[in-house]
Structures are given as structure tokens and as C-alpha cells.
Amino acid sequence: MAPSSSAVRAPSEPPRPRVVPGSTLASLLLPGAGRPVSPLLERLLEFGLLSCALLSVATTAGIVAVLAWETLEFARVVPLRRLLLDTQWTPLFHDQHFGIWPLIAGTGLTAGIAMLVALPLGLLAAIYLSEFAPPLLRRYLKPALELLAGIPTIVYGYFALIFVTPALQRVLPGLAGFNALSAGIVLGIMLIPMISSLSEDALFAVPNGLREGAYALGAGRLPTIFRVVLPSATSGIAASVILAASRAIGETMIVAIAAGQQPRLTLDPRVPVETMTAYVVQVSMGDTPTGTLEYRTIFVVGAVLFSMTFAMNALSHRFKRRYLSNSET
Amino acid sequence: MTLRSATRARRAAQLGLAALCLLACKKHEPALGVEPSALAGAPSSLAGVPPLADKFKEAAVIAVDGSSTVFPISEAVAEEFRTVSAARITIGVSGTGGGFKKFCSAEIAISGASRPIKPSEVLACARAGIEYIELPVAYDGISVVVHPANDWAAQMTVTELRALWRPQAQANVQRWNQIRSGWPDAEIHLFGPGVDSGTYDYFTLAVVGTEHASRGDFTSSEDDNVLVQGVSRDRLALGFFGYAFYGENEAQLRTVAIDDERDDNGKGPVSVSPESVTNGTYNPLSRPIFVYVSKAAAARPEVEAFIQFYLREAARLVSDVGYIALPEQVYDLVWRRFARRAVGSIFGGSGSRVGVTVESLLGAE
């Protein structure tokens, strides 16, 4: 294919600065580049950079270790089946129950509503930006959309509590002051840029040859997008969606403020629920003495939450790798 | 090895050492964080360091902590005290239980409490050799509130409250018509203070009969404003919290009159109000709230001055922040109690007692 027409897209990968062979790290980093630097300093700098990279790995390892340790301590007192087979969660109260399902239900409900909002809106925004928007508009619209990601979550939380909930109450009279619905909707709005931006990258990376091939076979614009471009970007889009879902599950501020703090095994979006993250906030802000069984529950909840988001992130990573290898061929 | 490269190697070694030190220091940060209190706990060890000891003395810090219910009063008093004294007052909000924990380990001079001291706390204080002076500063009427559009629950009996809040109600009593037939067949949404608050302790004792025993499936928050928001935006809600938080949000809430089913202290259902709390008819949800002063700290002139100021100004400031002032003669009794440095609790150290007035207890002394 000759890259002659103006419709041809630039490759999505920006050109990388090539490292000149023979140049050293120190000479690249330090002023007066090009001067020979001692190998010792060179190695020190390398070591410094390596420790920066290892820091986040070590932090993650530390978190996993703490969560695992506290969960094991908890499991020695409360058998796992009380965690998984009970339907009530009241560790702080007289009649203690440790059934984690109400918290999982609360998390799933808010995250599910959020995805119902974010997935269609984010995906359609991505399709528009990648396939329809004139280049100039796209240049301003995409960063503007990404601005949504820069709003602090506490602002979203109060937006849900004191604006969205009262507004929804006019339509739905049975809606409680704290509810999964408004928290989920606002959470979804927060996730739109995540889905639209990553999906747009995936759509944009679809080789133009595929589009041109479809046009050449007589397909219109919409069939080309929905039958050719979207399917070939599936893994990239799936990666973005899973990443957003994992973010929705882990989101704390919005749900702690707007969804309530009552663990309740329900899928009714109109009543107060408590998510796993909100429970951790509730206990750690209270006065529960450290080292007690009640306090350990937050680590157990944390471990469950971590394994859920970890699994989703790993899944997303796999999809992303597949899309990268797809778009290269 | 040339001279230059030796210098360089030394410099590199120093750099490495510095980095190591940085890491090590970071590791010790928490230890550094607790050092000031450790110093405060052992002033004798400072004898050899006069400048530092002087500095601690000069600052004259009065550390206050404890109940979030008492906090608004202490805050108002401290604010005005600043105009007459140079002493610095820090006020924390750890809850009544958290406050006593710090109080009984000599970390603070004064602790606010929304219930009297409990046996376990009496023991902790005794073990640490801390003598305390108990000073009632105001009345509170725990307000049971519903949404203004709730047109059915105008009054409830204590028996009904008990049936609603006791542990056995958990996962069982979920609808309004389970409390009283004739009330709507709709879900009830419950809101109450967190389990560390003295208000929760007192409510469970007064209503359920056992301190700290209640159902667990309600929205429980240490932040009373969350409870106000929850009840004021939910037609099916019922909650309880201190009177000051009702007073601040009167327009968005409605109180439920409480009938204790005893006629000797006011017939029929009684609404919470300054009058019904003061004359003892709002039963069993009226209670005194306190500050506790350590006897050792009371010997410090700035602490003594602060407490005297507190008791002198309480009547006015208590009403300002939304609580109910004790009768004047009771403040006199409390003043005399402090002047005598009378240690111990007028409640005998066994925690809350329901249905007694501070007046009778102080008068009986």
C-alpha cells in the first residue's frame, strides 16, 4: 500500500529516541553530556534507577504479605466457611457474622451500574473520536474528555450525594438518601475517560488497510466500523473495560460518601449498601483497637478486594498484549 | 589507584552511605512520631536537658480528647479561654472509649465523655495511678428522628424501640409494619452512631438493656453528620443521635416522642426538648455528659483556670452549641466538687445508669 493519500494514518507508536551506541547512562543524565564518566558512578546511577523500579514491586510484595498474614491470623479464629457461607456481615456488633457476601454484593452492584453507564458512553465516545471526529476537534475533545479523570474522587462523591441523589429522587420517589444507584452512575461518569481514551487508542491502532479493504468491497461507513474496525480492536477494548471495572471495584471515596454504610445482601439499587472499600474506611476511621479480630476483618476484606482487582488487572494485561501483537501484524 | 579516582571512590561511598541513612531514617519515622509522648510520660529523664524541659513547660499545653458529643462544648469553651489565657489547648476526638484510653495512660489532662466511666476504665486508671475528678457539664437528650414526610411514627414506646434495635432483630425486623401493625408495609432504613461512641453505649443500655448489644444491620457512622444526611433524605429512615445534631437540622428532621410506659415520670409519649430533658420526663434517653480531669493535671494552674472557666461559662456556651444546660444549682454543686477535688465517679464506676438525674446524685454526696 502506498502511503500517498491524506487519509493514511500515522503509526500510533511515536518514534523513540535511539540511544547512540557507546553512550553511557551517566553521560545521558548529567550535564556536559559526552564527557567520559567513571564506570563506578555509572554503576551507581544504574543501581539508583533500578531501586526506583524495584520500589513499587517491593511495596506490592509488602502489601500482599501483610494481607496474607492478617488473613491467616483471622482464619485461625474464624473458619473460612463462616466467611463464605453466611449472608450477614456484622463483625463489629453483638451478634457477630462474617459473611462477606453483602459487601461483595454492594461492590458488585455499584461497579455494575458504573459499567452500565461507562461502557456504552465511553465506547461510543471512542468510536466518534477515532472514526468520525475531524482532526482539529479530536485534538481538543480528547484532552477535554480526559480532564474528567483529573477530578478528585471526593468531589465526585459529594456530587453524587448532594446533586445526583436529590435529582434522581424527583423521578424515583422510593430512592433513599444513600443508594447504590447515584454512586454507581457517578462512578460510571468517572470511568468514561478511562474507557474512551484506551479504546480510542485501540481503534486508532487498527491498520488503515482494513478500513480501505472494507470500503473497496463496498461496505458503508457504519458496517466498516462495526464489522471490521471494532472486531479487530476487541482485545484492546476489552483490556480497557476490564481495567475500568477493576477501578470501579476498588474505588473508595464515591461509594463511601454516597452509597451508604450498611452491609446488605441486595441487588436493589435504591437502598443504602456498603462496599468492601467503604467498610475498610468505616473501620479504620473508627476507634476499633488494632490487633483485635474486628480490626483483622479489614485485612480480610482487603485481601478479597485485592485478589479481585489483581485477577482483573492480569486479565486486562493479557488482552492488551494480544492487541499489541495483533496491531503489529 | 590514582588520587583522583580514590577521591571519587570515597565520594561514591559517602553517597551510598547517605542513601542508606536516608532509607534507615525513613524506616524509623514511626518511632520518631511517638517520641514526644514518650518524653511527656517521663519528664524526670529530661532533668539533664534543661533547655528542652523549659520549652515544654513554657508552652503550657492542655491536652483534651474524648467524646465527639462533648467536643462542640469543649471547643467553644477553649475558643473563649484563649482570650484570657496564653495556654494552648489541643482537642482530639477519639470517642468516649478512646479518650479514656488516653486519659488512663496519662497522655491527656482532660477527657470528654458522653457516659460515666466504666469498670474496665476505672481499673485501667487505678493501675496507672490516675485519679480523676468527674464533672457533669450538660444534659443531652438522645433524639430518635425520622424524615419529616414520615406521617406515621409520631411516637414509639421503649418496648417498640427495643424490639427494633435488639440483636435478635438483626435480619428479622426489616419493615415498618413489623414494629406496629398499621404502619406501612415498607422497608425500614436504620441509622445510628458507631460502636465506639458513648451515645451508642448509652442508647443500647437504655433501650436494649445491655450495653453494646444491638442489631448490626444498620448504617453505623462515627460521623453524626452522615446520620443526619441519611435520615433527612430518606422517607423510610429512622435514626438516633445527640440533641445538638437535631437542633442544627431541625427543619430536615422530625423527632419521635418516646413513651417509657411509666407514669411516674411524665405520662404518655414525651418529645425531646430542653424542658423535658431538664425535668426528667424525657426518659430513658436523657443523660448527662461529662468532662473528666486528672487530679494531677488539676494541680497545674493553667488546667485549674481552664476548668473554672469551663464551669463558669458552661451554662451559656452549652445552649449555644445546642445542648441543654444543667440547672444553675447543679453547676454550683459541680463547681464545689471540683474545688474539693473530689475524685471518683458519682455513678460508682459502674458506667451509665438510666433514669437518674445528676442533681440527685450530686445532692446525695
Please describe what this structure looks like.
With 329 residues, chain A is an all-alpha fold. Chain A is built from 13 helices and no strands. Chain A folds into two domains: 58-87; 88-291 and 306-328, Orthogonal Bundle (MetI-like fold). Chain A has helices at residues 25-29, 39-77, 80-85, 101-132, 135-147, 153-171, 180-204, 208-216, 221-232, 234-250, 253-258, 276-285, 293-328. Residues 1-13 of chain A have low confidence and may be disordered. With 365 residues, chain B is an alpha/beta fold. In chain B, 44% of the residues lie in helices and 16% in strands. Chain B has a five-stranded mixed sheet. A five-stranded mixed sheet of chain B has the order 8-7-9-5-10. The chains are: A mainly alpha (329), B alpha/beta (365).
Features:
heterodimer; A: 329 residues; mainly alpha; MetI-like fold; 2 domains; 13 helices; 70% helix; 0% strand; disordered N terminus; B: 365 residues; alpha/beta; D-Maltodextrin-Binding Protein, domain 2; five-stranded mixed β-sheet; 15 helices; elongated
